[in-house]
Amino acid sequence: MGKKPLFENLIFNEAGEPVGVAYVGDEPCYTIPEYGFLRHVPARDVDQQILARLRDEMLRHRDLITPQILELLGRDDLFTKAAVDATLQNLDKQVDQMMEFGLPEEARLYLGMMGFRATVNVHGELVDLTLPAQELPEE
Q1: Within a domain: residue 135?
Q2: For a surface tag, which of 19, 51, 67, 139 has the fewest beta carbons within 10 Å of its beta carbon?
Q3: CA dihedral defined by 15, 21, 22, 28, rounded to 10 degrees?
């Protein structure tokens, strides 16, 4: 499970330095620079923190996300909306699958171009998560 870090090239330390990837045996680790040394933190621990924050944000803004997903799918019927709502409701299961199969490189590149950025401290604790911004409709 989790043979590749999900957010490779999207994580930085608190000084703004990019976090690398290394393997300790079969376990992928993020290598966090600190005063010329690299701290190895299991990638799964960091990835789970980022995914939990993403899940919380998605659930908080579900009413804005659902119409956008329907638009991307080109469908706006009751059954598709129900399927999208069910998917958002069961994000924990989706996260488990993502941890198992990884995130495609194209998706990581796209996230990086859109401004996605995670900041961790030397212990691998998520300090900040910058998400791609979109202006919210005025009410």
Answers
A1: no
A2: 139
A3: 120
